[in-house]
């Protein structure tokens, strides 16, 4: 088990009395600036030792903090959309996190994607979430659920998260402030850190890559803010993750929302967030990654679920690429020109995707991921041919 400890630089550091592995989330004025792996000796660490360790290991934060302190314009209003298909304690925890925001959203929407059997409506009433707008989307599929939330949104921004996360209290504030700093920004993604690292499967998922995209504010577009590498903008994972993703409502509607042939609940098993982030950038709009918009995600604790997740990621990524290839002659040419770079990114041991994996990383997971990649184009074709499934009677 790896302990997760939060340390605020503007306050005295805590002591770490127990030995063993730990991760330190370092904040500066509330803003996350580093997530440091440390091994605490058996005798523990005194507060001054913790401070010295952080000063030695924490990266230069000047650029990020300067960007974060930029004077914003008018801050837009936000609708928070939580997608779910089952009544659960984690859903209630997520909604309590929405209530505890430093900047309250103008609307909270829960989209029930299994309304016939989920019990969500009764659960919300029993738990006293009377402010929540419940939207029923009986057609299965995460993209359909997110589009139903988009249709119901009354805020200028729609912020999506899942029912298995814990929201930092400044999540909405950080998202809306980012949009206020530049009218060109159509999408803001945020930082996702592990809620716990208590099992081998959760540690392996972090070695796989986890969800975090670093602690620097980054802008992405097709011109002055291009990402690194020959794959850009098709290494779409650099943009962020759907469980912490927000959009200007007008822009997302203009782009047609999420592609309903992609995502969980379809044969494609995922790829809908990769697809919409890529669509934002290729449309000439700007996407910002803002690590101050933090949520905590509980990774799957068991190996079976992890194996299924890794395979699904391979399927979803390749299904997204197949969709772009099939629907756009221009992108077909762009993708063909990036084929060699894509194979190096996927298979090269030193690529940004694989560089963080140790020799102990299970070969079987790599095989499952690659099997998913091979399956992805066929899964996308199946999803297109099949169309939306009918809801259960």
UniProtKB/TrEMBL annotation:
SUPFAM superfamilies named in the record: Nucleotide-diphospho-sugar transferases
- Please give the InterPro entries that the UniProt record associates with this protein: Glyco_trans_2-like, Nucleotide-diphossugar_trans
The segment(s) forming the Glycosyltransferase 2-like domain are 79-189
Q: In which pathway does it act?
A: Cell wall biogenesis; cell wall polysaccharide biosynthesis
Q: Which UniProt keywords apply?
A: Glycosyltransferase, Transferase
Give the family from UniProt. Answer: Belongs to the glycosyltransferase 2 family.
Write down what this protein is called: Glycosyltransferase 2-like domain-containing protein
Which species? Actinoplanes ianthinogenes
């Amino acid at each position: 088990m790896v302990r997760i400890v939060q340390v605020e630089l503007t306050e005295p550091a805590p002591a770490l009395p127990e030995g063993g592995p730990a991760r330190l989330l370092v904040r500066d004025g509330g803003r996350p600036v580093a997530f440091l792996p440390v091994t605490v000796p058996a005798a523990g660490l005194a507060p001054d030792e913790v401070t010295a360790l952080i000063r030695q290991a924490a990266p230069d934060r000047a650029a990020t903090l300067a960007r974060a302190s930029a004077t914003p314009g008018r801050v837009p209003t936000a609708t928070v959309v939580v997608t779910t298909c089952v009544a659960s304690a984690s859903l209630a925890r997520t909604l309590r996190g929405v209530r505890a925001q430093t900047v309250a959203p103008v609307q909270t929407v829960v989209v029930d994607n299994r309304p016939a059997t989920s019990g969500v409506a009764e659960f919300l009433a029993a738990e006293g979430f009377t402010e929540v707008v419940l939207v029923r989307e009986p057609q299965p599929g995460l993209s359909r659920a997110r589009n139903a939330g988009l249709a119901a949104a009354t805020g200028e921004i729609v912020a999506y998260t899942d029912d298995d996360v814990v929201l930092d209290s400044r999540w909405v504030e950080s998202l809306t402030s980012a949009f206020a700093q530049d009218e060109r920004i159509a999408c803001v993604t945020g930082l996702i850190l592990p809620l716990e690292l208590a099992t081998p499967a959760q540690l392996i998922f972090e070695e796989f890559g986890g969800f975090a995209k670093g602690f620097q504010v980054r802008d992405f577009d097709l011109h002055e803010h291009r990402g690194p590498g020959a794959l850009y903008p098709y290494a779409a994972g650099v943009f962020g993750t759907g469980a912490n993703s927000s959009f200007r409502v007008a822009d997302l509607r203009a782009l047609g929302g999420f592609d309903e042939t992609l995502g969980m609940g379809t044969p494609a098993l995922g790829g809908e967030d990769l697809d919409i982030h890529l669509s934002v950038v290729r449309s000439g709009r700007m996407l910002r990654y803002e690590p101050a918009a933090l949520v905590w995600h509980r990774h799957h604790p068991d190996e079976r679920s992890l194996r299924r997740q890794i395979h699904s990621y391979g399927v979803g990524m390749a299904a997204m690429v197949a969709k772009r290839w099939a629907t756009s002659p221009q992108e077909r040419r762009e993708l063909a020109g990036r084929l060699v770079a894509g194979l190096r990114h996927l298979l090269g041991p030193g690529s940004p995707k694989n560089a963080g994996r140790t020799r102990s990383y299970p070969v079987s997971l790599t095989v499952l991921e690659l099997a998913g990649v091979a399956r992805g184009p066929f899964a996308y074709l199946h999803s297109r041919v099949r169309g939306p499934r009918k809801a259960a009677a």
